[in-house]
Design goal:
Blueprint (H helix, E strand, L loop, with lengths): L1 H8 L3 E5 L2 E5 L5 H13 L5 H17 L4 H14 L11 H5 L3 H11 L15 H12 L22 E6 L5 E10 L8 H12 L5 H9 L3 E8 L6 E10 L3 H17 L4 H18 L3 H13 L10 H7 L2 H11 L6 E6 L1 H9 L2 E2 L2 E2 L2 E4 L5 E2 L14 H11 L3 H5 L3 E10 L2 E10 L4 E7 L2 E8 L4 E5 L2 E4 L2 H10 L12 E8 L2 E7 L4 E6 L5 E6 L1 E3 L2 E3 L1
Parallel strand pairs: 3-7, 3-10
Antiparallel strand pairs: 1-2, 4-6, 4-7, 5-6, 8-9, 10-11, 12-13, 13-14, 14-15, 15-16, 16-17, 18-19, 19-20, 20-21, 22-23
């Protein structure tokens, strides 16, 4: 529309969100861009068409993330820490989004987009006098309105350290978060000690968690921590994605590091390096105008002293090893930690049940994917002694029409759509009974990647480069390149029975990367999970 066209013409950026608006522009266009931002913020055009588009996009995003173990671990951990009735722990589900209508959006805007709840921060090559004049001109008609009075639910930590486990049968690794809620504000006397404590514990590749869990033990590609601050309530979180086989050992390693930083003073070298890193990061951040704007906003909304950021480095450098130990003892609750583990129950739950620390058993409590407490699932469902992968395949072939009908199929063509970073991807795959296959990934009508296999060799074309298949890719392609891989899956093995989409299914490992799941009742294939190594990351 004309609004967006003018912003593009001016080379500016104007963004609106549920919590405010922001703009970035050349100084010479500042008056006009400020006017456009004010118009958008004070006179939003909420249309049914845009609402439905955004609603559909949100639902698609939720569905796309349903099997994303890392993303689910984050939201489950927040829900368990804060409670699902707290804004910080609230779940967004397809059902909750479906219930929304345009009036809900308008009511939210009318209730919370009010001048009593607003700050206007401007940084750049502009004159204060001009800024005040423009602010008065564009915002003087903003109607006063009282903010709704809301009482937040009380948030409490667990009485004793415990494991909260959530089963994700498709997980190839476990997501581990050791967490507790904290009361920490930027203006608190020990704020700077907490910053350095976190930097030493899990603030990067040189921190203790990384050196222990990755460099020393090789459990993960990275282990980190974060310590939040908030006017209401925040969290301390230490986390890593670890191999299933070492999930219980990783939990112990996390607890070791928490107890260590609580019980022992950090070394002079660690303290020196942490201060140097903070100094460097702080100076670099000041080069960004957005940082200056955020600092100015923090001073106002958090009631900080006017010289808070002017004396920032002085306060960092004044922190002692004793200060860090006291902060760790106050905020890193090793004896009241909630250890959230999201992973494959059939592979990790048994060892988690055996966990002890300092001679004390660590209880395990079970939750579903909506963070609701449940009884311990049965992860050891017995498969009949005479059941084999071949019999599972026979039942599947019979369920889809029988072997004779299946063998008459010469090729299968599949199409799918996905969304990545706001861009829609089109995926098409064709496989033939001769063991050949073609896969194309498109975006905006253009093919951005193509994969071809002729039965014996193959290649990938992407960004103008043609790369031949490796031996492993050839082996995987031979297993996959058939309309019904079950007909020639000689190496397949029956792994057991697992729950998939709330129904029991036989898990059959097809090769080193693919596991198929077949309903024990109907015989139909209900899920196929493929694991791909992308550099240091394992993707499912």
């Amino acid at each position: 529309d004309k609004f967006n066209e003018e912003i593009d013409y001016l080379g500016a950026r104007v963004n609106f969100s549920s919590s405010g608006a922001s703009a970035n522009t050349l100084s010479k266009y500042f008056p006009r861009v400020m006017e456009l931002m004010a118009k958008g913020a004070l006179n939003p055009n909420f249309t049914s068409e845009e609402f439905e588009k955004q609603k559909e996009r949100t639902i698609e995003g939720i569905k796309a993330s349903e099997k994303d173990v890392a993303q689910n671990a984050r939201r489950i951990s927040q829900a368990l820490s804060y409670g699902k009735d707290h804004p910080y722990g609230e779940f967004t589900t397809t059902e909750s989004v479906e219930k929304l209508n345009l009036e809900d959006v308008k009511n939210y805007y009318q209730s919370f987009y009010v001048p009593q709840n607003a700050y206007l921060v401007i940084v750049g090559d502009v004159e204060t006098k001009e800024v005040k004049k423009l602010a008065k001109k564009h915002f003087q008609n903003w109607k006063k309105s009282e903010l709704p009075q809301q009482k937040l639910p009380e948030v409490n930590n667990v009485a004793e350290t415990q494991v909260n486990f959530v089963d994700f049968p498709n997980a190839v690794q476990s997501e581990v978060q050791v967490t507790n809620t904290i009361q920490l504000k930027k203006g608190d006397p020990d704020y700077f000690a907490v910053l350095l404590a976190n930097k030493i514990l899990g603030g990067g590749g040189e921190a203790r968690l990384f050196l222990n869990l990755r460099e020393d033990k090789g459990y993960t590609y990275g282990a980190y921590s974060s310590t939040g601050d908030d006017k209401y309530v925040a969290r301390f979180v230490a986390s890593a994605s670890v191999r299933n086989a070492v999930t219980d050992s990783a939990v112990v390693a996390f607890l070791d590091e928490l107890h260590r930083i609580r019980n022992e003073k950090v070394s002079a070298e660690e303290l020196k390096n942490a201060k140097a890193k903070y100094t460097g990061d702080f100076v670099l951040a000041l080069e960004r105008p957005s940082t200056i704007a955020q600092y100015a906003l923090n001073i106002e909304k958090d009631n900080l002293p006017e010289d808070f950021y002017q004396t920032y480095l002085k306060k960092i450098n004044a922190v002692t090893a004793e200060d860090i130990q006291k902060a760790a003892q106050k905020y890193y609750l090793a004896d009241n930690a909630r250890i959230v583990v999201v992973g494959k129950g059939s592979e990790v739950a048994e060892n988690l049940e055996k966990l002890t620390y300092n001679g004390k058993e660590i209880p395990v409590k079970y939750f579903d994917k909506n963070a609701e407490p449940i009884e311990k699932p049965n992860y050891n469902k017995k498969v009949a002694a005479d059941m084999t992968a071949e019999k599972v395949f026979d039942k599947y072939i019979a369920a889809i029409g029988g072997e004779e009908a299946v063998e008459d199929v010469e090729s299968v063509y599949m199409m799918a759509q996905a969304e990545m970073q706001g861009q829609k991807l089109d995926l098409s795959t064709k496989v033939t009974s001769q063991g050949k296959s073609l896969t194309e990934i498109g975006m905006g009508g253009n093919v951005i990647q193509k994969q071809v296999f002729n039965g014996e060799e193959g290649f990938v074309v992407a960004r103008g480069q043609k790369v031949p298949f490796t031996e492993q890719q050839v082996a995987a392609a031979k297993a996959d390149s058939h309309p019904f891989p079950e007909l020639n899956a000689e190496e397949a093995s029956l792994q057991g029975i697992e729950t998939v989409n709330e129904q029991e299914a036989y898990a059959v490992q097809m090769d080193g990367t693919t596991t198929n799941y077949y309903s024990t009742q109907t015989g139909l294939k209900v899920q196929s999970v493929k694991t791909v190594q992308q550099g240091p990351q394992t993707m499912t």
